[in-house]
C-alpha cells in the first residue's frame, strides 16, 4: 500500500494547488438499447451489458440498471476506503462492501402517486484488518464523507452506514 499512499499524496498535493475548474472531473457513458430491455454501455474501452430478468420481461443478459447503480456505490466506496486506509496507515487484508436499497416498484407506473426513487440505501463495510477497530472506524467515517457516490446519494435519500471489523459490529 506504500506505492498507493505515495501516489495519493502526490495527487492530493496537485489538487490543493488546482483551481476548481482544473479539479473538476468528468465521467461519460454512452448507452445503446440493443434488445427489448437490454443495453450496452461503452465506458472508456469497456463494454457493459445490462438487462432485466426474465420475470420482468428481459432476457437476463446482465445485471439490471439498479443492480449496477448499487454496485457502483460499492465500487466507489471500496476505492475511497482503501485510499483512505493507505493515507491513514491502516492495513486492510480484506474489504467487502454490501450495498442494499429499497424502493416501491409502484413508482415505475405512477401507481398511488408513489415515487420510483430509493427510500433508503444501506452501505455496510466488512473489513478484516490487524488494526484496532477504532482506527478502521475512522477510515470508514472519512470514507463516508469523501466518497463521491456516497455524497451524491446522501442528498437524495436516507443512507445508513454500518461497519463490521473482523466479524464484529463497530459503532460509527
As residue ranges, the low-confidence spans are none
Number of strands: 7
Question: N-to-C SSE series?
Answer: HEEEHEEHHEE
Structural class: alpha+beta
Mind telling me the CATH class of the domain at 64-172? Alpha Beta
CATH fold annotation of the domain at 64-172: GMP Synthetase, Chain A, domain 3
Q: Which homologous superfamily in CATH is the superfamily of the domain at 64-172?
A: K homology (KH) domain
Structural Rg: 19 Å
Strand percentage lies at 25-35%
CATH architecture of the domain at 64-172: 2-Layer Sandwich
Strand order of the largest sheet: 4-5-6-7
CA-to-CA gap between the ends? 25 Å
Overall 3D shape: globular
Q: How much helical structure, as a percent, in the residues?
A: 25-40%
Average predicted confidence as pLDDT: 96
Number of helices: 4
Query: What oligomeric state do the depicted chains represent?
Result: single chain
Q: Strand count, sense and closure of the main sheet?
A: 4 strands, mixed
Compact overview of the structure:
The protein has helices at 2-17, 65-88, 133-146, 148-156; strands at residues 30-33, 39-43, 46-50, 94-103, 118-128, 158-165, 168-169.
Task: Report what the structure shows.
With 172 residues, the protein is an alpha+beta fold. The chain has a domain at 64-172: GMP Synthetase, Chain A, domain 3, CATH 3.30.300. The chain has four helices and seven strands. The chain has helices spanning 2-17, 65-88, 133-146, 148-156, and strands at residues 30-33, 39-43, 46-50, 94-103, 118-128, 158-165, 168-169. The protein has a four-stranded mixed β-sheet with strand order 4-5-6-7. The chain has a three-stranded antiparallel β-sheet with strand order 1-2-3, with no helix packed on it. The longest helix is centred in the middle third of the chain and has 24 residues, at 65-88.
